[in-house]
Structures
1.
Amino acid sequence: MNSMKFNDAIVSIDQLLQYSSYLGLLCGIPDKNINDRFINAAREEAVRVFPNSPLKIIQPPFIKYEDQKILDKKPNAERLPRIACIADLSGPPIKDGNYSCGVLIWWQEDPSFPIDLSVTLAIKELKWVSFASDAHY
């Protein structure tokens, strides 16, 4: 699979970066504050690697811990899916460009491919033109 189907366009996946959602976390049990920090880190990484492309983040599902020992220490413990994904995408022109581009960030339990079904369904609901922009050769 080297393409994604949005609500209004089929776009190509030009590059796909994947890494552990908690890369660099030495210790601790994730909660909302830690998760927000790592979501922001993914955004910063996308901007660093693809500085000229607009980006969209698919809100990740937060997974509650079931281990009572963890919940005893931190009742509000929740984690991101294991893998952060950043895709550099290109598609048909929106208005007057040669093509359009955008970056999409999402999280899933296993490395791609395939992309998790919940993410695929979320992408199908998105309009490419709502965040992508025209680009020129």
2.
Amino acid sequence: MTQNIWKHITRYGNAVLLTAVLLVTAAFPSTATDDPPLASFMGDWQSNGDAFGRPAVSTIKFAPAFGGKLVHLQYNINIITNGTPTPAFSGVAYYKQLTDDRYQAFWADIEGSIHPIASTLEGQALTSIWGTEETRLGRTRYEILSDGTMRITDWARVDDEWKQFNDNVYKRLHHNIAHETK
């Protein structure tokens, strides 16, 4: 008798469970897409402009990392002296998506700086607040423009004011969201 009861509970219990899962899935559709976080930023970008008041070639790369769980950013500045590029600065960041429009990250660079980052995505613009009040506080805005270029603008917090110290427009060299940085 007990075996008969468990057989009916198991048979009908599985049917009830499947129905509940289907109802919940229909009531709360997934907002996930096949695109990785920050998909429109993915790829290799280059700017031929100025850095530190001198002609420079700056590159930035956004790529999926760790199975798409994070986004890796690699940033390099090469100062051009007599036609020869010389490395002047480089840094890396790893971004983790928290919600549709919020990201948490960290930054590390050749100066030995390590900064926490809190970012917000609004349309085609990612604004990152990096550092701390106790150390150094900055803001970087990455914006995909209507012509497909990306403008990157940096500010540092000095005496309770945002002072701009960088503004360059980057052209996309490659757009490969499937390539993963390890």
3.
Amino acid sequence: MLRLLPLFCLCGCWDITDLAPDDGRAAAGSIQSMLNSGVAHTTTGAGTISTDPVTVQGVSSVLTFALTAGDADNGDTAKLALITHNVLIELPLSPTSRSKLEVHEDNSGCVASGGTVHLQVDDTYALSGDFEVTGIVFGGTDPCTANGTLTGVPVNH
């Protein structure tokens, strides 16, 4: 059972335990992220592609990552689009999209309001991809950027 401890940090991070899959998988693979062209941080992650929306999350002492993948650019839900293995899908992020991405590291956080996430699932149900987003600093009004990669993150199906 994958259990993530509630995360409470000074920057206002939220408790993402409600996103944690409860299907016996351990977090693995890597999620790497960099805020505002700063230092890259890495954590393991896990996700689920059996629900709509698809969710991916990772938590460590240096990085908290949460992705809600709603709709692909082709109009399909991310769940439907990721059924076909080894096909890269694109998730556009906007203030009105069902797809959301939030990253917290270095005592700051970025809530994406624009940008793109690319994802694909391989034959072993490992998720890989990348993201490049712009947004607003969590709890503030300053602009922020975040980019990074997901490699070999296990997902249930």
4.
Amino acid sequence: MSRKAKLFELMGKREAIALRRKAQSLTKIEAERATHDALCEKLAQMQADNAPGAGLMHPRTLYAKSWYSGKLQSQREMTEERVNFLQREADGIRQTMTYLQRKGDILTQKTYAAKAEAQQEAEEKAQSLMPPRQNRGIL
């Protein structure tokens, strides 16, 4: 294998390793996003359960429910922002993975081309070292 083909092959392996690392990162981010999605739904359910009833209520109870509802709302907003951030991160990683995949494909093509070029050069060299053929005509 020629030096050029070996370099392209090593560069392709480097891109494959980077692609695997990005895939692992994406898996972790997706798991965290799913966890935060579930938490956001749970907070929404808790907020709905805490809504004041239709009957008479003591002012302190109404105040406590209002305070608790406000805290739940702020937690929910923070969780939704985190989910949105994780989604943007996942999208960025997917774009990077696409770029790395294309780059790896290009390097693979260049490796094959360099190997074919080295093979062609070896054949030409072997051909030049062979003694010339004598043209024998059929009589």
